[in-house]
Every structure is written in structure tokens, then in C-alpha cells.
Amino acid sequence: CSLDSGAMVACVSPQSYTGLVEGSHSFQVRAVDGAGNVDPTPASYTWTVDTTAPETTLTASPPAVSGSASASFSFTATEAGSSFQCSLDGGAMVACVSPQSYTGLVEGSHSFQVRATDAAGNTDPSPASYTWRADTTAPGITAVTATNVVPNGATISWTTNEASDSQVEYGTTTAYGSSTPLDSTPVTSHS
């Protein structure tokens, strides 16, 4: 028998090896009869020891706050040929491929996890994960007031039922025609 191109040594079947390092290995065995005749073409076998799990990486995901009831995720693994399992909102891990899409999501917080398993069966012990919020309902506006009204201006104030940005459109007709700069700071009290 010969392990990894080492010298041929006497052995019996089955032959076992322990402590093999990660990577490619080869084994050869040849027969020798009682007269000392040596098999000129040893039987051989090659295999790979792989004990390292792949790392899973998300490469695309929805924004942290999404105005959509759908979400799509793209992901990769550090080892080519890996398969994947995905979980939505803490559900069971199920087989999936990249990109993985979901539709019909309810409004609120959601979580996604994905893990890779390589050809040797090693599974990423720390799945890639992402959380986001689906917000598909427009904010409600209440308590609209106008103060400090003068011939060429007024202060308009209102509240919203959720934090949102603000901008006032105004004019002398219902077509408006003018607007204030967009204030992108999310608040519930606006003016």
C-alpha cells in the first residue's frame, strides 16, 4: 500500500488511515504473490478530505425599510458547488437557490437567513442573516393647522401616525405649482 505517493509498504485489507490533513489524498495497492511476482499496475483511489464549512454571504437584499410586500435576496458561498438552505421569519430551513424571492409579505418586521453546505456535507454554522421592515401603508395625516397667516405666507403644521418625511405643496389654485424643500428627517410632528 502507498498513501499520497509514499513508498509501498506491506498492508492488509481493510487498510485504515487516521489524522489525514485537509486536502487531496491518493491511495495505491498492489498484489505480490508467494513467488514474489509484483502486480505492475496498482489499483488506485483519490479523494479529498474537507472538514471546513463554507462561509455564506448576502450580496443583495431589500432596503432596511421597504415599501414593498416582496423581497429578493442574492447570496454566494466561499466554496463553489455549495447548496443553500433559506429561512424566512424563523421558519424551517428549506432548499433554495440564489436569487431567492418572497411575495405577499405582511406589513411589519421580517428576517431572512441563508446557509451554505459544501459537497462534503459541511454546513455553515453561522448563517448569513438580514432583518428589514415591510411598510406598505402610507402614513395618515391629522391635525392640520395654519398659523401666522399673512398675505404672502403661513405656517402649516400637521401630525402623522408614523414617522415620515415632509414637504408642503402650495399655490393659489388646486394645481398648486410651488413646494417647500423636502425635509427627509422622519418625524410625526411636522411644520
Can you give a write-up of this model?
With 191 residues, this protein is mostly beta strands. Helix content is 0%, strand content 50%. It contains no helices and 16 strands. The chain has strands spanning 2-3, 23-29, 43-49, 56-60, 65-66, 71-77, 83-88, 94-96, 100-102, 108-117, 128-134, 141-150, 153-166, 169-170, 178-179, 183-190. The strands form five sheets. It has a five-stranded mixed beta sheet with strand order 5-11-10-7-8, with no helix packed on it. The chain has a three-stranded antiparallel beta sheet with strand order 1-2-3, with no helix packed on it. It is rod-shaped and about 120 Å long. The model has no long low-confidence stretch (mean pLDDT 94).
Give a brief rundown of this model.
By secondary structure, the chain is an all-beta fold. It has strands at 2-3, 23-29, 43-49, 56-60, 65-66, 71-77, 83-88, 94-96, 100-102, 108-117, 128-134, 141-150, 153-166, 169-170, 178-179, 183-190. The chain is built from no helices and 16 strands.
Structural Rg: 33 Å
Q: Which strand order does the major sheet show? A: 5-11-10-7-8
Question: What class do helices, strands and sheet pairing give?
Answer: mainly beta
Strand residue content: over 45%
Main beta sheet strand tally, sense and closure: 5 strands, mixed
Helix-residue proportion: under 10%
Topology:
Blueprint (H helix, E strand, L loop, with lengths): L1 E2 L19 E7 L13 E7 L6 E5 L4 E2 L4 E7 L5 E6 L5 E3 L3 E3 L5 E10 L10 E7 L6 E10 L2 E14 L2 E2 L7 E2 L3 E8 L1
Parallel strand pairs: 5-11
Antiparallel strand pairs: 1-2, 2-3, 4-6, 6-9, 7-8, 7-10, 10-11, 12-13, 13-16, 14-15
